[in-house]
């Protein structure tokens, strides 16, 4: 990997032309002086990492690997297997395997997690369907049938004495009787696990490390996943009443709980309940809008908080690498036309195929603001996802982009379900080397190259994650790091690229990270990124001395930067003088003078409207008789 330093010296007329050389480069602008935003540590999560069988505990080597990876959130409820979990009997019915009942000891999993990784969060769930496993004595004999091999009939309802359809498919010749393997499981039973786990006279687990609780799993498709007892899908309102009852009782027992719902299965189910929109008070709503509306109404009536994290699942169908590496844009990007958009056509209550921009979390935030208010305090989480790729470089790129976007947007937790080669390497890189806070990094070519800068508490250390999503092209990136004086030491760089097909992560000290460094750096850093690569640069701040603290030139500041329309320009004058402020394009050509006027000494603040300009990089110059200063500004409508 080739890294070089480029320093621009601004002198008189030359001031405007040196910065515009090498325009084929990707420009990254980072202002370390801007407001920092905390990154949730729980975006570094995973599903089903632990053993819930006391007779088969994880080895110390397996625990050490989990610690080396830096996993901070363990979602261990088993997905659809959690819907009929009986924590008293430690049994669960498996809907994707004949509804057979098997042992699962959540107690053991939670205890072993707190003993071995006490800093991590564990996540489990409540059951809302009203039934739970009671015995394995009525199981279908899958071993005698076909030595427990998978076939298309594993979804047949054969537990409880069903008759197998040897032709396959999900419909048995005769369904089993669920009363033979299930028992009633009301709301009091499901929330009583709180007492069992956290009461000092029972298990005495640390509730602060098991705060996040899912409200069951994918309820809008129960008539498919749990059709042994839900032959017909309940109405959306019937589900809401189940939700309200459990949420209220859980909050009463555990005020500090993080209630996570409604946990829909995929993009179609974000908007549809029983394959349609919902009619309510003579209006039509998509599922998540209706869910948020009803949460708001019930909270207003009862005064009880019923939702802390809006949690969704996402299993995109894209198979092309070009589409997969853009999937991080589905959640917040209001300009991204998602090729897999389908359920979103329901927005407005009808069917409008011209609606193809997904931005599901941004939509939900708008609904939360509309129905609950500006300070709703609800965050977002993705507790299951998976992609269709076996290329480790594509997988690593998608995962890194999603982690970066979720760090940027303040997503609360992220626990992918499917785990492909390349993801361990990215998880280790981000969780091990990322800092606690996010500051915005702006790229001139966001489709392919993104910057995710993270800053530590003291604002003297930055880890900058750079992702190149282009499948074949290297990208030369020039980094403009503002309000951060780089220490005159080698800058370390880690990279993941050209990963082989097999798993490469073994431990913190044995993995696929490639290292490089740059000696001495100031103002601009230039680096070449491999195609489909994930990279991290580490910057340390130089200690300030008195001369660095003093004001220099006009002490010009431009904010917000980037901006969508208006920009504020702040500068300082020692005495009264005439000042000209001009705007230049990225080729160094003057577009216009924004102002030319006499100003008194002191701090000056001006506002200019740039909405008539097209997106791109511009330069603002402030000039007096004795001095000139030029700063870059990025316009993005």
Number of helices: 14
- The radius of gyration over CA amounts to 28 Å
The gross shape turns out to be elongated
Largest sheet: 8 strands, parallel
Strand order in the sheet with the most strands: 4-5-8-11-12-15-16-17
Task: List the topology elements.
Layout: E1 3-6, E2 26-31, E3 37-38, E4 45-47, H1 60-69, E5 73-75, E6 91-93, E7 101-103, H2 106-116, E8 121-126, E9 131-133, H3 142-146, E10 182-184, H4 187-191, H5 193-198, E11 212-215, H6 222-225, H7 236-253, E12 258-262, H8 267-271, E13 278-280, E14 283-285, H9 287-302, E15 309-314, H10 321-324, H11 360-371, E16 379-385, H12 392-409, E17 413-414, H13 423-433, E18 437-438, E19 441-443, E20 449-455, E21 461-468, E22 475-482, E23 491-496, E24 514-518, E25 524-529, E26 533-540, H14 546-549, E27 557-559, E28 566-573, E29 577-584, E30 590-599, E31 602-609, E32 616-623, E33 628-635
Parallel strand pairs: 2-22, 4-5, 5-8, 8-11, 11-12, 12-15, 15-16, 16-17
Antiparallel strand pairs: 1-25, 2-19, 3-18, 6-7, 9-10, 13-14, 18-20, 20-21, 21-26, 22-25, 23-24, 23-26, 27-28, 28-31, 29-30, 29-32, 32-33
Helix pairs in contact: 9-11, 12-13
């Amino acid at each position: 990997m080739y890294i070089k330093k480029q320093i621009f010296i601004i002198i008189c007329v030359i001031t405007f032309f040196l910065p515009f050389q090498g325009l084929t480069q990707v420009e990254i602008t980072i202002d370390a002086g801007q407001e920092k935003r905390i990154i949730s540590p729980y975006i570094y999560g995973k599903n089903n990492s632990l053993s819930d069988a006391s007779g088969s505990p994880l080895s110390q080597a397996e625990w050490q690997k989990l610690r080396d990876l830096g996993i901070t959130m363990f979602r261990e409820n088993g997905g659809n297997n959690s819907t009929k979990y009986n924590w008293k009997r430690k049994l669960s019915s498996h809907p994707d395997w004949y509804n057979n009942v098997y042992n699962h000891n959540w107690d053991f999993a939670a205890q072993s997690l707190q003993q071995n990784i006490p800093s991590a969060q564990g996540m489990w769930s409540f059951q809302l369907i009203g039934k739970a496993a009671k015995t394995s004595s009525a199981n279908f004999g899958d071993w005698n049938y076909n030595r427990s091999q998978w076939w298309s009939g594993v979804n047949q309802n054969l537990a409880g004495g069903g008759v197998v359809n040897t032709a396959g498919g999900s419909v048995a010749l005769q369904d089993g009787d669920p009363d033979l393997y299930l028992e009633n499981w009301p709301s009091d039973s499901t929330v009583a696990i709180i007492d069992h786990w956290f009461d000092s006279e029972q298990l005495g687990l640390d509730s602060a490390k098991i705060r996040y609780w899912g409200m069951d799993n994918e309820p809008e498709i129960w008539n498919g996943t749990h059709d042994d007892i839900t032959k017909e899908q309940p109405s959306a309102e019937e589900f809401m009443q189940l939700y309200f009852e459990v949420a209220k009782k859980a909050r009463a027992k555990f005020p500090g709980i993080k209630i996570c719902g409604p946990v829909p299965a995929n993009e179609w189910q974000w908007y549809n309940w029983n394959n349609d929109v919902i009619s309510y008070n003579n209006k039509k709503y998509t599922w998540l809008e209706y869910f948020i509306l009803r949460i708001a109404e019930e909270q207003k009536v009862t005064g009880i908080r019923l939702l802390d994290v809006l949690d969704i699942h996402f299993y995109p169908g894209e198979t092309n690498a070009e589409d997969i590496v853009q999937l991080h844009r589905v959640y917040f990007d209001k300009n991204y036309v998602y090729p897999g958009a389908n359920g979103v056509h329901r927005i407005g209550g009808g069917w409008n195929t011209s609606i193809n921009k997904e931005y599901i979390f941004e939509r939900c935030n708008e609904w939360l603001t509309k129905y609950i208010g500006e300070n709703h305090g609800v965050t977002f989480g993705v507790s299951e996802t998976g992609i269709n790729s076996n290329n480790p470089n594509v997988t690593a790129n998608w995962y890194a982009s999603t982690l970066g976007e979720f760090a940027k947007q303040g997503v609360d937790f992220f626990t992918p379900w499917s785990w492909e080669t390349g993801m361990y390497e990215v998880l280790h890189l981000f969780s091990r080397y990322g800092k606690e806070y996010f500051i915005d990094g702006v790229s001139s070519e966001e489709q392919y190259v993104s910057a995710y800068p993270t800053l530590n508490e003291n604002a003297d250390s930055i880890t900058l994650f750079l992702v190149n999503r282009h499948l074949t092209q290297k990208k030369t990136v020039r980094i403009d790091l503002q309000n951060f004086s780089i220490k005159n030491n080698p800058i370390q760089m880690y990279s993941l690229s050209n990963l082989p097909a097999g798993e490469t992560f073994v431990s913190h000290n044995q993995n696929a990270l490639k290292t490089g460094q740059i000696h001495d750096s100031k103002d601009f850093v230039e680096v070449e990124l491999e195609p489909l690569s994930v990279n991290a640069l580490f910057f340390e701040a130089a200690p300030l001395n008195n001369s660095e603290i003093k004001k220099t030139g006009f002490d010009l500041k431009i904010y917000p930067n980037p901006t969508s329309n208006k920009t504020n320009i702040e500068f300082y004058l020692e005495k009264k003088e005439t000042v000209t402020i001009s705007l230049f394009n990225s080729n160094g050509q003057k577009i216009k003078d924004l102002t030319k006027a006499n100003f008194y000494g002191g701090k000056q603040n001006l506002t200019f409207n740039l909405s008539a300009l097209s997106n791109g990089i511009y330069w603002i110059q402030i000039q007096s008789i004795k001095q000139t200063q030029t700063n870059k500004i990025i316009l993005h409508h």
